[in-house]
Amino acid sequence: MANDKHRSKNNNKFFLVILFQILHKKIMRKLFIFFIFLLAHMQIEAVTSKDIVEEVTSYADIKINGDRPWDIQVHKEEFYDRVLKNQSLGFGESYMENAWDTQALDVCIYRILKADLESNFKPTWSHILAYLKSKLFNRQSRSGSMKVINQHYQLGNDLYQNMLDPLMTYSCGYWKNAKNLNEAQEAKYDLIARKLGFKKGMKVLDIGCGWGGFAKYASEHYGVQVVAITLSENQAAYAKEVCKDLPVEIRVQDYRDLNEKFDRIIEIGMFEHVGMKNHRTFMEVIHKCLNDNGMVMLHTIGGNRSTVVGDPWIDKYIFRGGQLPSVAQIGTSIEGLFVMEDWHNFSVDYDKTLMAWFQNFDNNWSKIKQNYPSHFYRMWKYYLLSCAGAFRARHIQLWQVVLSKGGVLGGYETVR
Prior knowledge:
Elements: H1 2-45, H2 49-58, E1 73-74, H3 78-96, E2 100-101, H4 105-114, H5 125-136, H6 142-153, H7 157-161, H8 181-195, E3 203-207, H9 213-222, E4 225-230, H10 233-242, E5 248-252, E6 262-268, H11 279-289, E7 290-303, H12 312-317, H13 327-334, E8 339-345, H14 348-368, H15 376-392, E9 396-404
Parallel strand pairs: 3-4, 3-6, 4-5, 6-7
Antiparallel strand pairs: 1-2, 7-9, 8-9
Helix pairs in contact: 2-3, 3-15, 4-15, 8-9, 11-13, 14-15
């Protein structure tokens, strides 16, 4: 018994020694990590925000206060702290405030995105907060959707009339054989009609119809009947006038309220506003509304990765709650509902479209500037040219996806 007790005490001591060593190692590891963090923090504090920004931008061959068109000219020293603190948001806001400039904004953004400079920054609390908000709240609910409309699409029609083509098409053109913006937009409409095999008398649903350009083109050139819906009162009023005397019905209606059948369903540049939480609902609605032998066209900007939040600057100033779907997210949303017949990427055409829009906007700004606040020109310029650079860098994409209910018998033959 005495030997057993002695052995038990020894075992306990051995166990305590091992436990102490494990805890000691964990504590020392934590102290070591803290020590490294402290050294790193001291090293960062030893350089200025200007030093860091100059080093990071050099990876994209951008020189601060250099003399090349894409180099950044800094007008206010606060620019450096703003960029380090808020990254994309701070970069865009400081441009709006004229803290910096560049002769070729589109090229500057292209170089930044192509070099993936944002990977050199750590996420900020604002990014984390945006991520949590997107997880916890449905920002594309009915009320959230109206916030997007009021922020962007309720701007005066004069802005878009002086920026877009005669059909007021606010989405990517198709430049394969086009010589100008007008031809590119009509070619895009014709491409959609040919991909979906429009025939006279078909009933077509246009979700997010904008100013009625597609409805007008399709009814005039293909003899189809169009029901076109939007949430914007401005757009609806304009579209009704444009499509007057045509077999087109313009409605102010949420897609979630649809409950009727169509031969073809399209959305052009609207799916980006649906949001990940509503992707499946959107697909279920159009599946319900599509005839058994019908087809669907998604014409949407897409992202290379699955995310739940958009760019912070774009979200704040241009498209509140917007979210670019990924291939995986679209695939998940259509699973069990549709057959994917065709997936066409012509994102480089959006670069050309945006540059044409900016040229029109810049040339006509003097006609409309009295209707907008002083910061609007630089905000809109940053929006158009930064997006052009993003498409050029292949950071974001433009997809046309053709879907059918049960698969086209005999196979789908695509067109380009």
